[in-house]
Design goal:
With about 450 residues, the chain is an alpha/beta fold. The chain folds into 2 domains: about 10-75 and about 345-450, Aspartate Aminotransferase, domain 1, CATH 3.90.1150.10; about 80-340, 3-Layer(aba) Sandwich (Aspartate Aminotransferase, domain 2). Helices cover about 40% and strands about 15% of the residues. The chain has helices at about 10, 25-35, 80-90, 105-115, 120-125, 135-150, 165-170, 200-215, 245-255, 275-280, 305-315, 325-340, 345-365, 395-405, 430-450; strands spanning about 50-55, 60, 65-70, 125-130, 150-155, 185, 220-230, 255-260, 285-290, 300-305, 370-375, 380-385, 410, 410-415, 420-425. The strands form 3 sheets. It has a 7-stranded mixed sheet with strand order 4-10-9-8-7-5-6, sandwiched between helices. The protein has a 4-stranded mixed sheet with strand order 1-2-3-13. It is globular. The chain starts with 7 loop residues before the first helix and ends with a helix. GO terms for molecular function: transaminase activity. Belongs to the class-III pyridoxal-phosphate-dependent aminotransferase family. Pfam families: Aminotran_3 (PF00202).
Length: about 450
């Protein structure tokens, strides 16, 4: 296997050199896309997928062919959810304006969501609205740097926190040619498949302490530790729970703040805890959220303790033209209502357990399945060359991702070697949907083995 680092999205990307392999219509559309949108965009899958509409956990191509979507966490309450669509359309027909006017819906949404965070944020926290998770993380990091008077940011080794100048500099998963910020430090992935779980908590705390020491040694210090609590870009690690609480204590004792990046793990994705960090028993200083918040409509936010934001609020003016606009809040409120009314956190717990149990059964037949991880409807299945060496097999993972696409199942891959299958469907995914995923994966593995 190669040791050259490539982003998982590059490994699972269409190669433009293979345009000649496509049918004339698809080739023409991709050539137009490349000409009009430029070279930085990527397409998934060796055989790119053209989608025309969606419904629940399904996407449909231009010919009406159905694909089971086991990848898109943005449409958390299902593609084209009728309640969310009606809320967006109804609000757009009445008013679409910014937060500098007094409006009841934004206050109602804040009152609805703040109690879900628990701890200090539930007691007296504030919430600030942005358009994207990148903006939310950018704002949170700026607040942390203002609060502490320092620049240091500690992240995990394969983190992804956004695509603004500041957050891209905290996102090593973008690839080796994407530079990290000068005061950004990395700690290793808490790899529960290869590291002893009984010593992982003190080991991880020690890794963070070393990076704080390094920041101070170089004349700065820690402003923030920011972490995705499901470690999604690192390879999806859910255990041991309790990993993050002592890290938060350490970071605060050294003058920094703890930011829980819940763009991936939040809104019931990881099960009944609703927020991924609550599985770890941590009480964050700030929580950032995005992607699934509006079921596809661009809305995101930062929840922040009042003592953390007080100085920033006095010294800095914050305004976002579209962040928290009336239509975005309507989308967010409808999404939150559906999550609660339809008990989708509980569904994520139940169906996620069903998927992991299914892959555990498959592992008895296919030892290339090295590890099965995750919480709720965030599932990681690590592919290896053999279970003894635990050598990552990114090439096999790519064959599975593309092979499932050919069988009308959509997933992706993640981790340093892009060898972990990433399964994170809309939260309306059913056990019947899960069985279709498992059956097709088994049939594909049989075909690959033959």
């Amino acid at each position: 296997m190669t040791s050259v680092k490539q982003p998982a999205t590059m490994v699972n990307a269409f190669d433009p050199a293979r345009l000649g392999d496509l049918d004339a219509e698809t080739r023409g559309m991709i050539e137009r896309r490349m000409r009009l949108l430029g070279p930085a965009y990527r397409l998934f899958y060796e055989q790119p997928l053209r989608v025309e509409r969606g419904s629940g956990p399904f996407l449909y191509d231009q010919n009406g062919v159905e694909y089971l979507d086991a990848y898109n966490n943005v449409a958390s309450v299902g593609h084209a959810n009728p309640r969310v669509a009606a809320a967006i359309a109804g609000q757009a027909a009445r008013l679409a304006t910014h937060t500098r006017y007094v409006q009841e819906p934004i206050l109602r949404y804040a009152e609805s969501i703040l109690p879900s965070f628990g701890g200090r944020l539930a007691e007296d926290g504030h919430i600030m609205f942005t358009c994207t998770g990148s903006e939310a993380n950018d704002l949170a990091l700026r607040i942390a740097q203002h609060r502490t008077g320092r620049d240091g940011i500690i992240i995990t080794s394969e983190a992804y926190h956004g695509n603004s100048q500041l957050t891209a500099g905290c996102s090593p998963s973008l690839g080796r040619r994407a530079p990290l910020g000068p005061w950004v430090r990395q700690v290793p992935t808490p790899d529960s498949y290869r590291l002893p779980r009984e010593t992982m908590v003190p080991w991880f705390v020690e890794q963070v302490a070393r990076q704080i020491d390094d920041l101070e040694r170089h004349g700065n210090g820690i402003a923030a530790f920011i972490c995705d609590s499901i470690f999604s870009s690192d390879g999806i690690y859910d255990d041991p729970v309790g990993l993050l609480a002592p890290v938060a204590d350490l970071v605060r004792s050294r003058g920094g703040v703890f930011i829980a990046d819940e763009v991936q793990a939040g809104f019931g994705r990881t099960g009944t805890a609703f927020w991924g960090y609550r599985r770890h028993g941590v009480d964050p200083d700030m929580v950032t959220m995005g992607k699934p918040m509006g079921n596809g409509f661009p809305v995101a936010a930062v929840a922040v303790r009042p003592d953390i934001i007080a100085g920033f609020g006095c010294d800095m003016r914050y305004f976002n033209t579209f962040g928290g606009n009336a239509v975005a809040i309507a989308a967010a409120q409808a999404t939150l209502d559906v999550l609660r009314d339809d008990a989708l956190s509980e569904n994520a717990e139940r169906v996620g357990n069903h998927i992991r149990a299914g892959f555990a059964r498959l592992r008895h037949r296919f030892p290339v399945i090295g590890d099965i991880r995750g919480a709720g409807l965030y599932v990681g299945v690590e592919m290896v060359t053999d279970p003894a060496s635990r050598q990552p097999d990114g090439a096999l993972a790519a064959r599975i991702v593309n092979g499932l696409r050919d069988r009308h199942i959509l997933i992706s891959a993640t981790g340093f070697h892009a060898n972990t299958l990433k399964i994170r469907p809309p939260l309306v995914f059913t056990t019947e949907n899960a069985d279709r995923l498992l059956d097709q994966t088994e049939a594909l593995l049989d075909a690959l083995a033959g």
